[in-house]
Each structure stands twice: as structure tokens, then as C-alpha cells.
Amino acid sequence: MSDATPRPAGALRDFARRIFGAAGLAPDKARAVAHYLVEADMMGHTTHGLALAPWYLAGIDEGVVTRDGTPEVISDRGPAVCWRGRRLPGAWLAEQAMLLACARARDFGTATVVVGDSHHNGALAAYLPIATGQGLMASIASSSPSGAQVAPFGGLKGVMTPNPVAYGIPVPGRPILIDLSASITTVNLAQRMIRAGERYDHDWVMDAEGNPSRDPEVLTAGGTLLPTGGLDHGQKGYGLALAVEALTQGLAGYGRADAPRGTNAAMTITVHDPEAFGGARAFLRQTGWLAEACRSNPPRDPSRPVRLPGQAAQARRDRALAEGVTLHPGIWEALSAEAEKRGLGWAG
Amino acid sequence: MSDATPRPAGALRDFARRIFGAAGLAPDKARAVAHYLVEADMMGHTTHGLALAPWYLAGIDEGVVTRDGTPEVISDRGPAVCWRGRRLPGAWLAEQAMLLACARARDFGTATVVVGDSHHNGALAAYLPIATGQGLMASIASSSPSGAQVAPFGGLKGVMTPNPVAYGIPVPGRPILIDLSASITTVNLAQRMIRAGERYDHDWVMDAEGNPSRDPEVLTAGGTLLPTGGLDHGQKGYGLALAVEALTQGLAGYGRADAPRGTNAAMTITVHDPEAFGGARAFLRQTGWLAEACRSNPPRDPSRPVRLPGQAAQARRDRALAEGVTLHPGIWEALSAEAEKRGLGWAG
């Protein structure tokens, strides 16, 4: 089967779950990783979906990923919880942390769950519907102390990661799902473009001497991803990157200062229950007004109506659920090879 | 005395306090407004310091600003508090909300205080040291439902405001103070540049037809402030602007959907106590490592060392405290005129 073949989401999830299970992940971890990678593919975040599977599987084989168990509870003060993730799969930790943060926000009005020493957590937007589906507003900030591709604004040497923050906002109808990184582009996209020999349309990276560039290859020779705002106003991305480092690794008490070996992530989930503030109805009245003012805004290009963040992703997901998931080129071959290695076949 | 005359901070604060008091603000409100406007000037945020005094005074005269009283408590669930600010002075509300959020974060590990229907709150960074001085990490998000200078990305019509978020991060030594807006530049700076007939160095605004521009005058004819990231990657600023609208007006349950008359602001303060997560020492170990990695980063321009956000502002403040506050041109004349109107003289 070629890459253009749409495959049923359920069968694809099951295939991935069996591969991760065969690689040694405990059943609940294999389920979560498979589920959220396929979610990312369905939403169109194809660099953060099943494309990550071979890398995750290598991590399991090498012992970088912990196969089973629970996080160590560093603190639990009700609305404030901190876990040491013991490099368990990031998808499972993110799901569990989001579920806990939502439950605690219902009890206390707001809650923050911080997870340090996690393995990679994939596409943050995929975890937001856990909260928005309950009428809760959530944010997830994430950083990776094992990476250093973003320099402080005005500097040359990579210190931080793209440090995304995702926000899930309930509105009447489909939620707004925002995924916003502190650098213009991401590490995984750069790696894909390097493999494909592609260049950016604009100067989104900088070489080791500080020259702006469109060539992702500069990252392999000491170059860095430019912060959001670029050379013009990159103090904005720099500020956001610093804030995310402090919110994640700072509150976790584990990060770059410990020079972690192997892929390592820290994430901080904060949930607010509108009912505990001005009320759920009043919240939806404001966000509904805002969403409509954006959707009905006169577009700069008449052929491209103004969209809300997450709108296209949710439409893609609907289509994938109805018509099957079409994977980005190369992913199916890599996944099939991983299955074959473990004596598994596609049962779709 | 000309504008270049440095004036003692204490005398300047006292002068402003007496003017606001004579205009009718209750003593505690007059003190807070004077204090934080002078703080902003000392930190170099000169568009958000005493430059705002004539506008605030007009608001008091016109009854837009409430002169005395307390906010209405909409909800109080311990770590989750919501106030209706009754258009009390934003500086006083921001200070009180930050003090409460810090106290509650000490009790619960984290706390969020939301304030709707506030008057203008000035420079957010000025309130952060209340938290960082206690070793707490704070964020303040602010929006103004009475303004609409930022369009959704891809749209032409202003819907949102620059919607800044400020983050205060304790580090060993001076804190990091970040003030990050969702648009490239601000409304107050644009107004100052229009008065001075100045233009931006880059395309930071867009006219009503969607043409990028360096001329702030376009804002007076249906133009908009470009979101952070500009036309290249403005979906980032757009996402942040939406998140801030929801965090502030959404949680407050009061905002654009109510079409408030007169200057109106909403703000949301969230505080995290590192001691309730991975521990205060572990937090400072991470943020100290990060701060040093930024400060010692090889600079792109050898004559401009890499700085941490808030570093220059705190150095300016030190200098102003030692040598006096030098106001931006025009501010002293305007302030003196306001004093004279009320029969007050400078006692510096």
C-alpha cells in the first residue's frame, strides 16, 4: 500500500498500539502513545504524529524511555502538583496530568500540574480537548532540557528549545485550540526539511555567525532557530521561551542545570474552571462573541477567510475519522518496517 | 524647569499623589496610581508612566474612573478569585490583586485572581516585583475591551488590543521581568509617534486595505497594529491575543460582548509558589543556570552583550533612584499644568 492510502483511524491506532506493546511499553502506555500520535496525524501535525514512532521505539530499545510504572509524586497540595516523570512516555504523562489538572480545577477553581523528567510529549494541542470538552480552559507549556536550538535574542548560541505553549479555549461549538511556539519554526519540521533538501520561504533560522538564513541545514553546524518575531522583534519569542523554561523546568526543579541525558521534556499544565470565576455562561458569552468577530472579519485575501486556531485541525480530524488517515510520505514505510521487525502485520 | 531636569523619585511620587488626590481619588488609590506611574517612568516604560496622568485625570473628571471603594467579589474559592473592578484605578486594583494572589499562592501553591471592569492598569512589569520579591513566579495578562486595534491574523478589522502578558521570574540576584505583547508595538507608543510625526523602522502596522506600513497614522483611518510575527508568522501573536482575551475577559465574565463605555481593562494574575512544586532551591538552581547561559551567550553584535528581560529596566530604576527621574519630553509640562489647575505646586 502506498502512502496515499487512507487508513481507518481505529485500525491505525491499534497497529501502533501493538507495535509499542511489542517493543515493551506497558499496555496503558502503549495505548496512550498510539492514541495521541494518531490524533496529531489526524489534526495535520504530521511532524508530531506517527512520524515520531521510530524515534520513540529506538528510545524504548535503548532504555531512554521507561516502559512501565507511575511518576514519583514530588508534591501534592491540591491545586498544585509536581511529578517526576521518570522518563515515562510523554503522551501518557501528558494525558494523566491533564486529567488530574481538570479534576483538581473542578475542586479548587484552578490547578497546575508540573511534570519534570518526561520523555517527549508530541503535539500539545491533542491533549487540550480533554479540558475543553468539560468546559475548562487549559494551557500546556513544554520545554526540552535535552535540546538547545534557540538562542537568547541578540546571542548566537542555542540555549533553549522552541518551548511551545498550547491553549484550549471553550467556545459555543468547537473549541479554539492554539499551539504557539517561542521560535518561528520547530526542530521536527527542520529535520524533515533537511531530509527533503527544502528551504524556508523566509529567514527563519540563523547560522552560527548570526547571519539570517532560509536553510535548515545551518542547524547542523551550530546555527539556531530564530525566536518568534525574528531579527525584527525577537525579544518577544525570547521572553516567551524564558517564561516557559521557568514554568516547566523551574517549577519541576529538574532541567538544564542537571544536563539530562537522552530525550527529556518538562511540561506544566494549568487549568481554570470558568464556573469558579465569572461563571461558565458568562465565559462562553465572551468567547463566543470573540470567535464570531474573528470568523466574520473581512479577510485580507478574499479567497482566504479568517480562521480560528484549531479550526482547520478539527476539520481535518473530522475528515480523517470519516474517510481514513492519509499519512505524510515516508511514515507508513517506516511504521511497517517497525512492525515487521517485531513480527506484526497490518490488520486494517 | 526643563524636562531634562532629574527630579527625586519620592518628590515626584508625592507631587503626582497630591494631584490625583485633589482630583478626587481616595488617598489609597491616589498613592497607588502615583507610585506605579513613577515606577514605570523609572523603568523606562515612559509611555506608561506619568505620561498617562492627564488622561487618567480626565477620566476622573468625567466619571469614567471610580474614585473610591472596593471591587465587587464575584467569587472566592481560595486559589480562584474573581473581582468586578467597578472601574476603580487599574494601578490600585492590580496591586491589590497581586498582593492577594501572592498570599493565596503561599496558602495553596498556586492562585489566580481575575479582575474585570477595571480602569487602565499601566505598565504590567511594575507589579511583578511584589511577587518576585517573595520568591514567587507571577504572570499578569491584560486586555482592554474598550479598544480594538489588533485584527485576527489574515483579517483587516481590529477586534482585540495588544493584550500583553508579563512574567516575573525569581532568579538568584535580580529577577527576570518580561513584558510581552501580542502585537509588535503598542497603542500608547503609536499615539506618541503620531504626535511626533515619527515612523516605525519596519512594517509594524497595516492600513485598512491590508497594506503593511511604517506609518502609525494608518491607525487613525481604520488601520491596525500587526500581531507579533507580522505578516510572516503573525498567527503567533494572533494566538496569544486570543488566549489573553479568554483568560481575562472570558474568566471575568465581562468584556467585549458587553461593549463597555469608557476605558475598560480586564486582567488575570496567576502566581505559582516554587516551594509547592519542585522546591524553591531547585527552582532557583534552574533559573540561575538559565540566566547565566543567556548573559554569557556570545553576542551577535560584539558591542551589545545579551541581556535578560528587565535587566535594563532595573538598572534604569537604580539610576533614577540615585540621580533622580528624568521625564520624557512633554510630560513635565503636562503634569505641571494639571497641578496648577488644582492650585498645587511642586515641592521637590
Automatic annotation (TrEMBL), chains A, B:
Source domain of life: Bacteria
Pfam family name, one: Ldh_2
RNA-binding recorded as keyword: no
Matches recorded under InterPro entries: Mal/L-sulf/L-lact_DH-like_ah, Mal/L-sulf/L-lact_DH-like_NADP, Mal/L-sulfo/L-lacto_DH-like_sf, Malate/L-lactate_DH-like
Keywords: Oxidoreductase
Protein name (database record): Lactate dehydrogenase
PANTHER family according to UniProt: MALATE DEHYDROGENASE, OXIDOREDUCTASE-RELATED
